[in-house]
Design goal:
By secondary structure, the chain is an alpha/beta fold. The protein folds into 3 domains: 66 residues, no CATH class; 199 residues, no CATH class; 71 residues, Arc Repressor Mutant, subunit A. It contains 14 helices and 9 strands. α5 crosses α10 and α9 packs across α10. It is globular.
Length: 357
C-alpha cells in the first residue's frame, strides 16, 4: 500500500510506459468528472479522496496484474513466434491475434541492431558488453525504444530464454532477407543449436513476392516491419503446414553465424543474397551523393537539416542499416571536413549540414 510520497515515488520508478499512461488516463477522467459537476465545493473533497484512493491502491493493482501475467507465462506455450526487432513483432502480434489459440501463443523480439557494430560470441558477457558499449558510444539511441537504457541483464535474458524453450513448443522465426534480420536469424539459430524440436521459418520477403506480386514484377520487401498485418496473416496461413528446417539446414545456418561473428567489419550489407561484413564507412559515398542531390534543390550555401539528408538516404538505400547509423556517419563526415555543420549535434533534429563552401 502507498502511504506517503516516498512510497509513491518508488512505485513510479517501477512502472512502465503503459502503466503510466493508464494512470494518467484514470486521473484525467476523474478530473473531468469533477470539473463538470455543479457542486464544486462538495465534490472537490470527493475528487481529492478519489485521487488519493487511486494512489493508495496503485501498487495493489499493479501487483495483481503482474501475478496474473506471471501465472500466464508459467504455462508452457504451444507456439512461440520470434521477430527480429520490435516493429515487426507488433505487426505479427496483430496478424496472429486473428488465429485461434491466442492464449497458447507467445511472442518474443530479438531487439538489437544486428546490421551494425561488433559481433563476437554474444553468449559471452564480455563480447556482449563490448558490442553494447560500441552502440551506445556511436549512436544516438534516445529515440529508439528501450535499447539505450536496458541493462546487460536484459540482453542476457534473451539468450537464456531462447535456449530454454520447451521441446514441445513450436518455434517460428519471421525474417526478411536484409542484413539486420538475416543476422538476427543466424544468431537465433546459434542460440537454439542444442534444441531437438523443430524450428520453422517464414521468409517474409520471398513470400511477399510469391503471394502478392505478379511474376513479371521483382520486388524485395526490405523489412518485415513494412508489411501489413493482413499480409503477414496470409503468409502464416500459407506456411502453417510447411516442413521445419532440416538438420543440414540448421547446421549450415549455425556455421554461418560462427563465420560471420568473427568478421572484423562493423557494418553488414546484403550482396547477391549473402551477408557481407564491410568497413563502417562503406555507405559514406552514398550519403555524400544524397547530400549533393538535396543541395541542388536549395539556395547556394543554405544549410539543410541533417534529418532531411538521413531521410533521403534511408528512403533510397536498399539496405536495412537504420537511421541512427546513417546519422552517425553524417557526424563522421562532418569531422572529416566533407560536410559543414550549423547547430549542435545532440540529435539529428538539432543541427544542419551543407557541402563545404
Amino acid at each position: 500500500m502507498i502511504d506517503n510520497i516516498f512510497d509513491f515515488d518508488q512505485e513510479l520508478y517501477r512502472m512502465d510506459e503503459d502503466e503510466l499512461r493508464s494512470l494518467l488516463r484514470t486521473l484525467y477522467l476523474s478530473a473531468d468528472m469533477a470539473v463538470s459537476d455543479q457542486s464544486a465545493e462538495e465534490h472537490s473533497v470527493h475528487f481529492a479522496t478519489k485521487i488519493q484512493s487511486i494512489f493508495k491502491t496503485l501498487d495493489e493493482n499493479r501487483n495483481r496484474e503482474k501475478a496474473e501475467q506471471q501465472a500466464l507465462k508459467a504455462q508452457i506455450p504451444r507456439e512461440i513466434h520470434i521477430a527480429i526487432g520490435e516493429s515487426p513483432l507488433g505487426s505479427i502480434k496483430v496478424a496472429m491475434g486473428k488465429v485461434p489459440g491466442r492464449s497458447e501463443r507467445r511472442f518474443f523480439s530479438m531487439n538489437d541492431y544486428y546490421a551494425i557494430g561488433p559481433l563476437g560470441d554474444l553468449t559471452n558477457k564480455a563480447d556482449l558488453h563490448r558490442r553494447h558499449l560500441w552502440l551506445l558510444e556511436k549512436l544516438y539511441l534516445g529515440e529508439h525504444g528501450s535499447y539505450a537504457v536496458q541493462g546487460m541483464d536484459k540482453l542476457l535474458q534473451l539468450n537464456n530464454m531462447l535456449s530454454s524453450i520447451d521441446e514441445d513448443t513450436r518455434i517460428t522465426i519471421w525474417y526478411a532477407n536484409n542484413a539486420h534480420e538475416r543476422t538476427g536469424l543466424l544468431y537465433a539459430m546459434h542460440l537454439l543449436r542444442k534444441r531437438l524440436g523443430p524450428i520453422y521459418l517464414i521468409d517474409t520477403g520471398a513470400l511477399y513476392q510469391e503471394l502478392f506480386k505478379p511474376s513479371e514484377v521483382q520486388y524485395d520487401v526490405p523489412r518485415t516491419g513494412e508489411i501489413f498485418s493482413e499480409k503477414l496473416l496470409s503468409m502464416w496461413q500459407h506456411c502453417v503446414n510447411a516442413e521445419p528446417l532440416s538438420v543440414e539446414e540448421r547446421k549450415h545456418m549455425e556455421q554461418e553465424w560462427v563465420n560471420l561473428a568473427v568478421q572484423p567489419g562493423l557494418l553488414r550489407l546484403m550482396k547477391d543474397g549473402q551477408i557481407q561484413s564491410v568497413p563502417e564507412d562503406a555507405i559514406d559515398e552514398y550519403i555524400m551523393q544524397k547530400a549533393r542531390e538535396v543541395t541542388l534543390t536549395r539556395q547556394p550555401g543554405e544549410f539543410i537539416k541533417s534529418a532531411r539528408v538521413v531521410g533521403e538516404v534511408l528512403g533510397h538505400l536498399e539496405q536495412a542499416v537504420g537511421d541512427a547509423f546513417i546519422e552517425y556517419r553524417v557526424r563522421q563526415l562532418i569531422i572529416k571536413g566533407r560536410l559543414e555543420m550549423e547547430g549542435k549535434p545532440h540529435a539529428m533534429r538539432f543541427y544542419s549540414v551543407r557541402l563545404p563552401q
